[in-house]
Amino acid sequence: MSSPSPSPSPCSSSRSSQRYRIGYALSPKKVQSFIQNSLVNEAKQRGIDLIKIDPTKPLTQQGPFDCVIHKLYGSDWNNQLLQLSLRHPNVVVIDSPESIERLHNRISMLDVVTGLKSPQGNQKFGVPNQRVLDESENLMDSIEEVGLKFPLIAKPVTADGSAMSHEMSLVFNEDGLKKLKTPIVMQEFVYHGGVVFKVYVVGEHVKCVKRRSLQDKCEVGLNCGAGDKGLMSFSQISNLVAKNEGKGCTSEMDKLVEEAEMPPLEFVMELAKGLREAMGLRLFNFDLIRDSRDGNRYFVIDINYFPGYAKMPDYESVLVDFFCDLVEEKRRKENQEVRWGEIEEKNRLCE
What we know:
The chain has about 350 residues and is α/β, with parallel strands linked by helices. It is about 35% helix and about 20% strand.
C-alpha cells in the first residue's frame, strides 16, 4: 500500500541536460545496504548523481552539493552541517540533527504521537502504556503503581542504532522483572495478531507493508521456548521471530500476515503526515500494530530515522522521486532569492 504517485518532478524532464548532485554521509554498513547499483542507476537516469561524502574531511571543502542526506552523529558532524548551511544556505540538508536527536530516546520518540490530532474516520491511534524505570526504584512496585500488566516488553532508553540499543526482552512475570538492569523502558504488550505494519515515510511519499511480528501466544511464552525463566531476550523482533521457527509459530505467522487487512490508506497517510510535520523529519519509518480486541485501534510502537529503505518495495523509484523533490525545493529557494534581489534592485533605483 502506497501513497498516490505525485506529478513528475522537473529533474525527470528529458528537456534539461542539467545534472544535480546529492551528497550522502552514511556509515559503511548503511552505504552497503542503501547505495545499491539499482538506486545509483535510476538516479542517474533522472539527472541526479549520488556523491559520497568523506566525513574525515571538512564538508565545506567537498561538493558542490544541491542536497545532503546523512545518518552520522556527534558534535563534530553537527558542526560541519551547521557550517555548510551558513556558507551555502540553499543546500537542502535532510534532516536536522536536532530533530533526529528526539528519536534517540524511546520516551521522547513516542511523546510526539500523543500530541497529534485525532484523524477523521473510525480509526484511533496512540502508544502502549509505558514507563521508564530508574535504578532507585523497586521494579514490581513501579509497574503496579502505573497499572502496567504482564507481559511487558523491556527496551533500553537509548535508541541510537547501536547493538546495545536493540537488546530487548519479553517479560512474563516478576521473576523475569528481577533479571532486568535499569534504567529501562517497560512497555505493555498489546495483543496484535502477530502482524506489524511498517510505514515508510520518504518526504511526502508513504508506503505501508505488513511483516511478521510475534504471535500473541508466543509473546506470553506459550509454545515458543519461554520456559520458566520469566523472560526471553532478543535483539530485534525479526530475530525473535526467526528464533521461533520450527517451534510451531512459523506457518501460523505466515498465514496471519497473508490474511491481515491493511490499515486504511487515508488513515496511514494522515498519521504519517502528522508525524512528519510534528517531528520535522522527512526520512523515517514507524511500526504500527492493530489491537486484536478493537480493529479500529492502532498503536505506534517504534519510530526509526533513515531506516532500511532497501527492504521497501520499489525503494529506488520512491527515493529518486524524493531526490527530485529536494532538487525542486532548492530551485524554489534560488528563484525566490533572485526575485528578492530584483525587487531590492528596483527599489534602490527608484530612490
